[in-house]
Structure formats: C-alpha cells, structure tokens
Amino acid sequence: MAVRPRLTESSKPPQSLLGQLETARNPGEKSDRRSTRTRLALLEAAQRLFAERSIEGVSIDDIAKEAEVAKGSLYNHFDSKEALADELFRMVRSHVAELLDAAIDDGIAPPERLVRGSFVILRFAIDHPESVSALLKLSPELLEDKAPLNVKAREIVIEGMETGHFKGIPADSATLLVVGAMLVMLQDSIDRKKSVKRLIAKMIPLMAGVLKALGVNSESAGIAAKAAARATLE
C-alpha cells in the first residue's frame, strides 16, 4: 500500500505530476527517451503558461520558447495549440477522476462521501496548484453541475436524498452549492494566501455548513466533515 505524504508547506512530489502521468502512459518504454522528454517539456511549458493566461493569450511560439524546443518539435507531437491543450486537460482531469474513484467508498454514508470527494480535490489543488489553475483556465465550465468531475457529486446528492440523509433542497441546487464550495476551496489553495493548516481549518466548517444546508443536523455535519478531512487531508 502506497504511503501518502503528509501535507506540509514544503511537501513536493519527487517528480512533476505530468512526469508521473507520462511515465504511467509509457511504462518501461525506453526506445525514444528524447521524444518523451520533448513531449513532457511541451506539456509542462503549456501548463505553466495556461495557469497564468487564457488559451487565447498563449501562442505556439510562447510554448516552444518556454519548453526550450524548436517550434517544429511541437508539431511532431501535437497538431495544434488546441490539441496540446486538450491533451493536457484530459491528462489532469482523468487523474483527478481516478483519485476521486479511489477515495470515495460506496460503503460510507452520503454526507461523509460528499465531503470526502471535495477534500480529495482540495488536496490535489494544494499539491498541484499550477495544474488546477491551468485546468480552470482551459475549461471554465468545469465547475458547472453537469461537468464530468461534478457528476459524482450529483450522484451522491441524489443518493443522499433517496436515503433521507439530505432533504429540503432540489438536487440541482444542492449540486451547485457543493460546486460553489469547491470553487472557494480551489481558489484559496491556488492563491496560497493561507497556510495549509489554516486552509484546512477553514474548509472543515465550510463543508459542514454545506451539509447543514442539505438538511444534515449540525452535530452529524461536523462529525462527517472532520472524518472526511482525516481520511483525505492528514
């Protein structure tokens, strides 16, 4: 079983996230390391630039210069800037979806499961703020209730209503409430105006408040939020 590093101000992955995903994409492949390094350099350069600017504000020349590769090398790997952006978005979004699937146990009651999913995304944002910033720039609709990463939240909300854990609010409104809280968490984690400890301390009562708005009593909401934090953030 993999050991998860504790969240501290200095926690850094030994390899970049994109480097890890590229390694997983081609496990054991050693035939063309130069090509793999170039592709990774382009993805990482694009992520840095997209984290700061919109896709329209970044040119092919910008990406090639940032990656320190010839412009022609980019076209050896991607047909266009948009194709590169799509691949970057797909890689990061798929990874987050895998993290959610691994962390959300169907045997856990809907309130804690809902908060746990939100905290998994928060942890990812704390560990990889640049990836999250780029993700949001590339797809603002990511925070809409029907976006792929929010479908799971909606499913949990509906299940919670069917089991009586949630009540008094329509499913669409409940999902948007959860998504709004996630946006607050993501923005705070990207801005890094708070320490990790203070950020977590703020998010536990925030998500407890979301659960209360969904009809969970105050005591149960607090217990669920703290349990989810212990499972995903500590």
TrEMBL record:
Stretches with biased composition (Polar residues): 8-18
Molecular function as annotated in GO: DNA-binding transcription factor activity; transcription cis-regulatory region binding
Keyword tags: DNA-binding, Transcription, Transcription regulation
Entry-linked InterPro entries: DNA-bd_HTH_TetR-type_CS, Homeodomain-like_sf, HTH-type_TetR-like_transc_reg, HTH_TetR
Origin organism lineage: Bacteria, Pseudomonadati, Pseudomonadota, Alphaproteobacteria, Sphingomonadales
Protein name per UniProt: TetR/AcrR family transcriptional regulator
Annotated region of DNA binding: 59-78
Sequence ranges assigned to domain HTH tetR-type in this UniProt record: 36-96
Keyword Transcription carried by entry: yes
Alphabetized Pfam families for the sequence: TetR_N
Residue numbers spanned by region Disordered: 1-36
Source organism (scientific name): Sphingomonas glacialis
